[in-house]
Description:
The protein is of the alpha/beta class. The chain is built from 21 helices and 11 strands.
Amino acid sequence: xxxxxxxxxxxxxxxxxxxxxxxxxxxxxxxxxxxxxxxxxxxxxxxxxxxxxxxxxxxxxxxxxxxxxxxxxxxxxxxxxxxxxxxxxxxxxxxxxxxxxxxxxxxxxxxxxxxxxxxxxxxxxxxxxxxxxxxxxxxxxxxxxxxxxxxxxxxxxxxxxxxxxxxxxxxxxxxxxxxxxxxxxxxxxxxxxxxxxxxxxxxxxxxxxxxxxxxxxxxxxxxxxxxxxxxxxxxxxxxxxxxxxxxxxxxxxxxxxxxxxxxxxxxxxxxxxxxxxxxxxxxxxxxxxxxxxxxxxxxxxxxxxxxxxxxxxxxxxxxxxxxxxxxxxxxxxxxxxxxxxxxxxxxxxxxxxxxxxxxxxxxxxxxxxxxxxxxxxxxxxxxxxxxxxxxxxxxxxxxxxxxxxxxxxxxxxxxxxxxxxxxxxxxxxxxxxxxxxxxxxxxxxxxxxxxxxxxxxxxxxxxxxxxxxxxxxxxxxxx
Length: 479
Ligand code: 6PG
């Protein structure tokens, strides 16, 4: 009997190809398929020595090469191309087989596809895969959704190829239907927030202290040896230290300052609004990208007045880099706290029962936001799965309280100098908003009741109330 493959990958652009190679390198026989045969052939020729591949040149041949339950990983563009490939393979598969979408799909699409395929007896697993091309090859962080049953056959393979931290795979079953893609979406939202906060730190160090990128790279390198130790800080130091070969200028100075996005940050914000979760750090980061991209608006407003710039005093300047580290840390905790709240809310809304400690654990390695402090987040959620926010967990609470003076000072320096810090500022406003004994939301309620009879609740009793503003306010008006 000819040997069959334990898994197949269709869509062999760089992510699909690297996932296939990673699987083969771990001893799994992998069937290969791509719309154009050339890619399949090339992969088998170039990397055939890395493991067992079964190249297939038609969808049927591919499906026939798989042992049962067949596991088909689809690695094509999100949207219509994914639907087309799923439809094609659903026709050829049998009940119990598994289709895996490992691209960045919207979780609502994943829910729809999962429900449709379930009707036909097929398992559909939407899985987040983070870590870029290198991660896919050497060990990504993997966030599979779909049925528990599908994880029984698929899980061991995914755990094999995932990054490992302290011997634990950065892969775990997240929850049913769209849970995996939802969690990956929030991962990307946090990625946006983290990148924005790091970028603001750079901008502050440069704007307030006049440091060159290479010197700031050194500061980031030092930070990376402490509590901020993370992949994003590490690559930031490398990007800042890089010199443009063509001009000899710092690389960062020759790059157009308009950040792009493929859309996962935008989805996170949209869903945050739908769920009513204030993910302000992610939202500001997403809007900061869109502001940067409005070239015409920026050109039209060039020269709008700014503050007269009083330089930092000697002592302020001396401690400024350390203050920025503290502001960055505290703002980062807020951004992650918000992201985890969004996962909690999504999980409650869709009945996913997502284990937040497990999510933090599998983000410790392989993914773009991998960071030392995710182990602290894991510990916090393992100790208190019902934690209302990371900000109330013992160690984080203390760290943020200790950082707050420096954090406030950095935000006020930024305001004084006219350096935009939407990420730092919104994080601090969120912190103060949560801490406040009373919020001006009481006044907003009064306004709503005045103009729209929208009613309000009272501090001293149950029920809804309405004031007859026309008579009561008139009586109080000064004569
Ligand atoms: C990852 C990344 C990746 C994502 C880009 C998109 O986890 O490996 O999040 O999935 O495609 O980073 O980012 P943009 O939206 O900035 O293009």
